[in-house]
Amino acid sequence: MATSSSSNKNNKTSSKITNIAVLASGKGTNLQSIIDKIESGYLDAKIAIVISDKADAIALERAKKHKIAAMFLDSKKATSREEYDKTVVKHLEKYKVDVVVLAGFMRLLSKYFVEKYKNRLINIHPSLLPSFPGIHGYEDAWEYGVKVSGCTVHFVDEGCDTGPIILQKFNPIKDDDTFESFKERGLKIEHEALPEALKLFCEGRLKVEGRKVRIL
Ligand code: GRF
Q: Which atom of ligand 1 is found nearest the CA of 138?
């Protein structure tokens, strides 16, 4: 990231409710946490669209169940990463999306996408970054034998899990944990962390200053 300094305060196209897009490839439990926090009134936002690169993603079912627009976009139909991303962006623009959340979206994004949604593109990662980036955050932390793990919500830059950190939550590992119990507790922590970060975004309380994200 460059030495940019910006608040998300003015990113919304109007004073309307924040329009969120969620990109997800799998089970969508993080998507569900956002849905639940909106329905409980904790999060003043709307999920405008859910997009998946997997036709059978449970995330799409969850969206449909809550009457949220849900779309499978097949990456095999695109000739390049950028072409696929341009298709995604076309839909995001149609739905006037203010912020894009990557909730278990198992694709790397192109420079085009990252620049388009700079400081409006949020990822949840299941480790305390910069430790254990990549797609096996839980497995890698567990196998390394760390005593404290957790999750990280961050803005996305062009690197792999390297963008400015919004917040992190701890998941201390207990002596009697199994990998399954560690992960199960970790996911519950994720489900608190992601809506919390989104709430800060929606309230215009995140200011990106280079690598630092200040909470206003
Ligand atoms: C989560 O562990 C998230 O941190 C990671 O992928 C997983 C997605 O889980 N990026 P789900 O599909 O939200 O249940």
A: 2
| Packing angle, helices 29-39 and 179-202, rounded to 10 | 50
Instruction: Name the residue with the closest Cα to ligand 1, atom 6.
Output: 104
The domain of 149 spans 3-8+18-215
Ligand 1 nearest atom to the CA of residue 123, by list position: 10
- CB burial readout 133-156, b (16+ within 10 A) else e: beeebbebbbeeebeebbbbbbbb
Domain membership flag for residue 71: yes
Within a domain: 140: yes
The C-alpha atoms of residue 88 and residue 117 are separated, in whole angstroms, by 12
How many domains does the chain divide into?
1
60: Cβ below 6 Å to ligand 1? no
- Name which residue sits closest to atom 1 of ligand 1, judged by CA: 104
Q: Is 104 in the pocket of ligand 1 (CB under 6 A)?
A: yes
pLDDT at 73: 97
Averaged pLDDT for residues 126-134: 98
* CATH code: domain of residue 182: 3.40.50.170
* pTM metric for this prediction: 0.93
Which atom of ligand 1 sits closest to the CA of residue 102?
10
Residues 34-54 have pLDDT tens digits of 999 999 999 999 999 999 999
Q: Is residue 13 in some structural domain?
A: no
Measured between alpha carbons, how far is 197 from 119 in angstroms, rounded to an integer? 13
